[in-house]
Amino acid sequence: MTPRHTEWDFGLSRLTKFFAGPWSHERTVDETIADAALGHLDEPAGEAASAILADAVRLEQSPLPTEVITTVWAVASEGGYNLAFFGVDGRDWLRQVAAVCSEPARRADPAESSAVEPVAASEESVRAVLAAVAEVEPALAARAAAKDGTLFGHAPGEVVRALESVTAQVDPDLGFRLLLRVLSTCWVPISDAQYARYEALGEAFGYGRFHVSDVEHQTRW
After folding, report:
1. CA distance 109 to 54
2. How far apart are alpha carbons 112 and 97 in whole angstroms?
3. Of the candidates 104, 147, 218, 129, which has an alpha carbon nearest to the alpha carbon of residue 155?
4. Contact 210/9 with Cβ under 8 angstroms?
5. pLDDT tens-digit series, residues 16-35
6. CB under 8 Å to 66, separation ≥6 — which residues?
7. Mean pLDDT of the chain
8. DSSP-derived secondary structure letter, 205
9. For 157-175, how does the pLDDT look when each residue is reduced to its tens digit (9 = 90+)?
10. pTM of the predicted model, to two decimals?
11. Taking each helix axis from N to C terminus, what angle separates 47-60 and 90-108, rounded to the nearest 10 degrees?
């Protein structure tokens, strides 16, 4: 896969970081999405917006139940902008994200369209991500048990099934990026061997050298 220009996280998984923690009303939701769409300094104009747009459209147009979308968003965003609390439908939320990102994406590339092609994922990549998700299920359950029995309001098994669904039915790349994000938000400790496997998977998906490092600190705990 062709490496991305940025060395860091991108797409919907990166957007979740902008909504992490207690939601602040100092900026509007659309302004926060637009901030994420600006991207990193090392990215070409419009690339960050295009990556978020592609993820949002692909997930919104997928056959997944809306509850799966709500679950992965809630945990990846640390329960920050809680869609259920604000009465926002998961698919409506993705449509709003896509609407905000469409304009900067098209300014950078007039040919950019919200019509996103289906992912031609290899069976090997799907199996690899599904294995990574299954491997951390006991650790996610342990983290939930140490809190209130949930991961930001969702049962650990529900979170695992949601990540599996995104991986198998939408895009293993997006599924893996959301897995990495969930590991970070839930402070799940991982071994050096796991981290090495994540690095290898990231390289196969064309990630930059710092992408996986969001979970690196947890190998030390």
Report:
1. 14
2. 16
3. 147
4. no
5. 999 997 776 677 999 999 99
6. 89, 90, 91
7. 89
8. T
9. 999 999 999 999 999 999 9
10. 0.92
11. 150
